[in-house]
Amino acid sequence: MNYLRIMFLSMVPVTELRGAIPIGIALDLNPIGVYMSSVIGSTLVAIPLVLAYRHIVKYLRDKRIFVGLLNRVDNKIETSMKKMKAASFLGIILFVGIPLPTTGTWTAAAIASILRMRLIEAISGIFIGNILAGFIVSILSYHII
Fold first, then answer.
1. pLDDT tens profile 79-110
2. Distance between alpha carbon 77 and the CA centroid of its chain, in Å?
3. Percent residues over pLDDT 90 in the chain
């Protein structure tokens, strides 16, 4: 039951994986179970987030809100589509994988939606980034480095 709580805690935008792992370790839970439940929870929440953010971006385009910013992003994507797609996948991995404030699953899902990444690429990038971030946070939580 505690691992389920850690999983739900990793889905919350305030704590995400970066806060769920130290809390699970502080509760003296199995570190591998804490790591796995945090990565799974943080990745599972990305699926509805990417889909919801896509609808939000579409709504903003339809209502002409932030139209200048969205047009600049669209133009940038159109001019360098192939390079942007390859870089965006690696960018999402690095963005999520480096555990800094505001660089988690919620923000990465918004970025993936704005860049119009395919759902499988966005979720895969977020998943790999969560694996990397979880490993770094776990090591830091155990004072290994």
1. 666 666 677 889 999 999 999 888 889 989 98
2. 21
3. 57
Residues whose CB falls within 8 Å of the CB of residue 62, separated by 6 or more in sequence, listed in order: none
Q: What is the pLDDT of residue 63?
A: 79
Q: Which two tokens stand for residue 113?
A: 């939606």
Total count of residues recorded for the chain: 145
pLDDT digits (tens, 9 = 90+) for 107-145: 899 888 888 889 999 999 999 999 999 999 999 998 876
The Cβ of residue 35 has, within 10 Å, a number of other Cβ atoms equal to 22
User: Which one-letter amino acid corresponds to residue 39?
Assistant: V
Looking at this protein, which amino acid is placed at residue 94?
Answer: L
Q: Which two tokens stand for residue 116?
A: 């119009």
Q: How far apart are the two ends of the chain, measured CA to CA in Å?
A: 30
Q: Which two tokens stand for residue 19?
A: 């806060």
